[in-house]
Amino acid sequence: VQLQASGGGLVQTGGSLRLSCAASLSLFSEHGMDWYRQAPGKQRELVAGISVSDRPHYVDAVKGRFTIFRNNARNTLYLQMISLKPEDTGVYYCNGGPFLSGGQREYWGQGTLVTVSS
Question: What does the angle CA 49 – CA 110 – CA 7 come to, to the nearest 5 degrees?
Fold first, then answer.
């Protein structure tokens, strides 16, 4: 099982980025997937998720700005981010597989850093 996240970088306020997370076939086809982020000095938090049937959900802070979607042919999860704000800064992680007791999924990508400058 493997998750490989990429696409982070430095952008100015109002800019856009697209994050990607490549997953192994079994993980991608059998489970939903989520994006989390961890801002400096804060706990990791859920940002968006998508079910195995492609139903998305978002936290209020990113609704209307972030879009989560999957490419089943490429076993890849994406997070399209527009109108970025400094408070979106953090390390973004993809999370996949079955849910564990704590509400997070079993497998994590290595994280990709997003920095939004003011």
Answer: 70
